[in-house]
Amino acid sequence: MKAKTIKELIAGEDELAEATVRGWVRNRRGSKNVAFIALNDGSTLESLQIVVDFSILSEESMKGINVGASLVAKGALKFSQGGKQRFELMATEIQLLGSADPEKYPLQPKKHSLEFLREIAHLRFRTNTFSAINRIRHNLIFAIHQYFNNQGFYNIHTPIITASDAEGAGEMFRVTTLSDIKPPLTEEGKVNYREDFFGRPTNLTVSGQLEAELAALALGKVYTFGPTFRAENSNTTRHLAEFWMIEPEVAFYDLNDNMDLAEDMLKHVIQYILDNCREDLEFLSNRQQEEEKTKKAEEKSMELIEKLLFVANNDFERVTYTQAIDILKNSNPNKKKKFEYIIEEWGADLQSEHERYLVEKHFKKPVILTDYPKGIKAFYMRVNDDDKTVRAMDILFPGIGEIVGGSQREERYEVLLSKMKDMNIPEEEMYWYLDTRRFGTVPHSGFGLGFERLMLFITGMGNIRDVIPFPRFPKSAEF
Ligand code: 4AD
Ligand code: MG
Fold it and tell me: Under DSSP, is residue 120 helix (H, G, I), strand (E, B) or coil?
């Protein structure tokens, strides 16, 4: 008989005379006459209880069945007498597939710290926390693609290896096949990249935006969803060196359309997770509340599901940078010099402490900040008539800070060119980008959503290294 997943089995209405399950042992307990195995196969949070009655199966059949071992069990699926579970499997056959030495297996049925689990990322999938997170991750990816598909967007694969620095921030990982001992040199003694694989310096992309713009100016509504790489040395709970970004780009959209799209998308995918991952969310909510028991009342966050419902059902606050600076200047932490970076004047870049003050203390809801000073934003953002600000928008979330960065793009050739000159963006290398402004340019807008930042928000986890299977950060590329 074909084996079913535990998720399929426990979703059924009736007892089954015969069923086969396969999975890994989470726990084992029992008495002289009977053994109980908690078997988990990852299809769902719940483990299935396998009952091994020694009057049916010999005690010998339990040999090697320890925590971490894998097995196949056959028997009747019965309504469970005791316990919380609805069903249990009365085993008539049990076969050990792979044993796990209890002395050496690092995961025991007890609470392990997240720090410890990060060191065994190859095994942490086998915990409730990480299997829940990864099931949610899958559902969120699916919801995002479904959302854009329903809205008539086309998914575009933008290159991972590129020769341009989309953000102009220079925080890139070099890609090369040149010898690291004796690279070919130019006459001036510099590394000669003409001899490199691509005949020029190349790096891993920091964003697919520039290429997505090219596609949007032909296909109308497009989005990318790919890995992006940043060599910024930020050892924080919000930064990864390798993360995934969703970047829609839409022809004829202005900044308001762009904000509407971002807000609608975020609400839609959060609602999808509420509707489709309830059990995993409830587990993570309980987990978070356990963790927060030691925190002071004012540091406690809103219950996870309540928080997600709140964001899905309330409008985001839309505020200009200039208004935000006024709020911050007059705020208590600024006046009492509690901020690490005191806001003195218009033009200051906002740090995460300021973003979080606006979202968590002042507005108490997601905030969309617009119209930032042009000097602190990327070259491609459209300049406003005041010539001081650009049509930028950042979305700030409680507990996270910036989750989305986007803008209306500068579609005017002359304005863009002079800005690129001002900001030292090499225009000869970017001729292809400028060409879109020379041939049939149109107003257009887009944004980038950090996938793992959204995962952090939805799962309520505190560290971005725990919402991606194999995190990459300074001094760590294990697994
Ligand atoms: O604000 P950023 O740098 O914007 C761009 O890259 C634009 N090209 C996007 C666009 O308009 N198409 O990055 C976008 C988002 C941030 O808001 C943040 O959520 C996430 O990407 N992000 C990171 N996430 C994890 N680790 C990092 N090091 C991140 N850097 C940015
Ligand atoms: Mg940004």
Answer: coil
Angle between helices 128-150 and 451-459 (to 10 degrees): 120
C-beta 406 within 6 A of ligand 1: yes
Cα 304 to ligand 1 centroid, rounded to whole Å: 24
**What pLDDT is stored for residue 1 in this prediction?**
65
Single-letter residue type at 281? L
Q: What is the CATH number of domain 126-170+206-466?
A: 3.30.930.10
d(Cα 232, Cα 171) in Å, to the nearest integer? 6
pLDDT grade for 165, boundaries at 50, 70 and 90? confident
Amino acid identity of residue 378, one-letter, is A
Strands (E) across 31-173 are located at 34-40, 48-53, 70-79, 87-98, 154-155, 161-162
Other Cβ atoms less than 10 A from the Cβ of 449: the count is 23
> What are the structure tokens assigned to 117, written together?
């689990």
Query: Among all ligands shown, which has an atom nearest to the Cα of 234?
Result: 1
* pTM exceeding the 0.90 threshold for the entire prediction: yes
Q: Tell me: the pLDDT tens digits for 111-156?
A: 999 999 999 999 999 999 999 999 999 999 999 999 999 999 999 9
406 touches 262 (CB < 8 A): yes
Residue 432 DSSP SS3: helix
Task: Please list the residues that pair with 317 across neighbouring strands.
Answer: 367
Q: Which atom of ligand 1 is nearest to the CA of 210?
A: 8
* Cα 404 to ligand 2 centre (Å): 7
Ligand 1 site, residue 465, Cβ cutoff 6 A: no
Q: State if residue 226 touches ligand 1 by the CB under 6 angstroms criterion.
A: no
Distance CA 465, CA 471 (A): 5
Report how far ligand 2's centroid is from the alpha carbon of 251 (Å).
21
Question: Three-class SS of residue 8?
Answer: helix
* Atom of ligand 1 lying closest to residue 403 CA: 19
Confidence of residue 294 (pLDDT cuts 50, 70, 90): confident
Burial class of residue 248 (count of CB atoms within 10 Å of its CB; 0-12, 13-18, 19+): buried
The CATH architecture annotation of domain 6-98 reads: Beta Barrel (2.40)
Atom number in ligand 1 closest to CA 453: 19
Beta carbon of 43 within 6 Å of any ligand 1 atom: no
Using the mean position of ligand 2's atoms as its centre, give its distance from the Cα of residue 449 in Å. 9
pLDDT at 2 exceeding the cut of 80: no
Q: Where exactly are the structural domains of the chain?
A: 6-98, 126-170+206-466
Given a cut of 80, is residue 82 above it in pLDDT? Answer: no
Q: Does ligand 1 lie within 6 Å of residue 68's CB atom?
A: no
Question: What's the 448 CA to ligand 1 centre distance in angstroms?
Answer: 6
